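Hey, can you fold this?
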Amino acid sequence: MDSMTWKITGRTASGFCSGNEPPDNWREQLAIRLGFRPRRIGVLAELALFGALDCLDAAGEITLPADTILQVCSLRGSFSAILQVLEQNREGLPMPFSFLQSQTSQLLPALAAALKWQGNAGIVLARNPVELAVLACQQAGSGGMLLGWVEEPGPASSCWLRLEPCALPSASFVAASSLMELASPDTHYWRLSRDGVEVASGPG
């Protein structure tokens, strides 16, 4: 195994990974997958759950090893909830659940509860989605990574990748400068280099 090389073992079937928005009935699909309809967690957290569970299904996993890194990236965070809180502030104090939904970090407890998992998790608000990949690769251990890029409607996206450490493949690596390169269906391997994350194709 190479501590600086990972193989993509699962990815979301819907969302930004495939260049499309999640399906129109993604909320119904999420409720079926969970066995209940999520309440009071906000749109961003619901989208995160949808993409993460879809990705783990593709990877053939129910939960994650304890030493897995779980990282989420968003450019705008809980945008709709923040707007709602600002509107409520004009009339007085915001409603408690509105305030909680505006806190982007609230999606992490929702993910941990759905996966019945405890471990190293974090959320990054960044202008460059590739920064999440670099940060996660620097922190990843033997359990690998579950990484998500989630945005609320306008358009909505919930792109997730499950990566596990692997032996260095006999493949040509090239530097990745965008999320599309990191999550492309043709990308099967990541490698951390001095200049960032490199990707390579190969057998799935």
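Oh, and this one too while you're at it.
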Amino acid sequence: MKLTNLNCPQCNGYLNQERDMFFCSSCGAAFNVDYDDDDVNYTELVTQADRTRMLLQRDVDLMTTGYQLNKEMKDREMYRAQTRATQKAVKTAGKAVGAIFLYMFISMALMIGIFIFVWYRVSQSKDKVLSNKNEAYETIREEVKKDSNFMENMIASGSMYESRFRPDSVTDRSDGQRRTAWMVGIAEIEDVYLMENKKSKEQDLFFVYKIEYQYEDSEDTIEVYDCFIVKNLQLDKDGKLKLDFKGSRYAHFNTWNAFEDKDQLYRECILGKTGFTATKLDVTR
């Protein structure tokens, strides 16, 4: 049967084409496709147009897909470039920070090393100085005890000092009378004390002298006591005690410019030096 249109010859319903057959949508009748030349030409035209439309759509889809792929590739490449740049910057910054910390660490290590070295050398120097001082003090202590020549010279020096700077006459106003007393002879040594400072360890010598005065109106005499002090004993280059004649007397504020009682001198001049250790020396040799 030749179909001149797309309507069913039986019920005039709409025909649907599937491959080489037509099927009525209303009554379900089936008809073979009987193409004539016009139908064939029409079908070819329709088929060609569909193919052209499909090809164009495919090209459009391909172009769209290519554009999207190209854009995605560019975006990914840009992301990779940014990531590489960021990683490079982080690595560069990390290296710079690491170099700074390494420099700081090396500098601190050098400073600590120098400090430890200086501290060690200073400690050694201090220890050596302290050791030398202690040895010197020990030597002085022993030399004072055994160097009779030094002791004799210092005793004579103190006696001369007392005779030179002590007044020859003293006016005594005791008992309501004015009596003048004159110094007799020279100052005589009574005791010698080695005084050692408990903190600094420096050593002094205290010479206790007895001075006799006689009243001019009688033969009555009076004995007074004075202390001659030589400070900071030193050793010379040969390890011997240096003779020092620049001593000083203990300050007194009384008529005799001295102690009238020897025990009082001992309590004030010797025991009164609370920061010192006193060692009485033998001067009978």
